[in-house]
Write a structure and sequence with these properties.
- The protein is mostly helical.
- The protein has a domain of 109 residues.
- It has 10 helices and 5 strands; from the N terminus they run αααααβββαβαβααα.
- A 3-stranded parallel sheet has the order 1-4-5. The chain has a two-stranded antiparallel sheet with strand order 2-3.
- The longest helix has 15 residues.
- It is elongated.
- The N and C termini lie far apart (41 Å).
Length: 175
């Protein structure tokens, strides 16, 4: 379904008919409830990357909702089931501009080992309860998740330490 038809279909379900191609109505002219319905149909990473921090305070408030910030997936799975990190320019925008603004809402991160350190250092993640890592090897585990200090910005968070200790103690189960 193309994008215009999807918007019209969603709007019709809300008993509003708007032809986005022939009207002066823009997406931001819609009420918050309708805008949220539309945005929730899209990939949360794409929505955050494209729309957060574009000088629209109302949109920023909407995008900080849990629906967009609860779980972030920083990997790409290829058709052959290879797991890759997102591209560097996208990763830069997330680490510099987005993650520090939404870290309080993030409960789950899905990371590839190549970008893991940058993402973990970008913010504090006080409510992080789930960390999924892909392409992890012994070197990464022993360099980042062992010793007296965790090698991330949030090293003093008790919940974070407990979670990492759990991963380390069960590491042999995943190999």
């Amino acid at each position: 379904m193309d994008t215009n038809k999807e918007y019209i279909c969603i709007l019709n379900r809300a008993f509003i008919t708007v032809d986005m191609r022939q009207s002066n109505v823009t997406l931001l002219d819609l009420p918050d409830e309708i805008l949220l319905i539309i945005l929730k149909k899209l990939n949360n990473m794409d929505v955050l990357y494209s729309l957060l921090d574009i000088d629209d305070r109302r949109l920023d408030i909407l995008l900080r909702e849990e629906a967009f910030t609860k779980s972030l997936n920083f990997i790409i799975t290829t058709i052959t089931d290879d797991v890759l990190s997102i591209d560097d320019s996208t990763l830069d925008r997330f680490c510099i501009n987005i993650l520090p603004k939404i870290d309080y809402n993030i409960k789950s991160l899905i990371l590839e080992s190549g970008s893991m350190e940058r993402i973990l250092r970008a913010a504090d993640y006080p409510n992080l309860t789930e960390l999924k890592l892909y392409n992890v090897n012994d070197h990464i585990v022993f360099n980042h998740f062992t010793g007296k200090k965790l090698q991330c910005k949030c090293e003093n968070r008790f919940k974070w330490k407990r979670y990492i200790q759990y991963i380390i103690s069960n590491y042999s189960l995943f190999r």
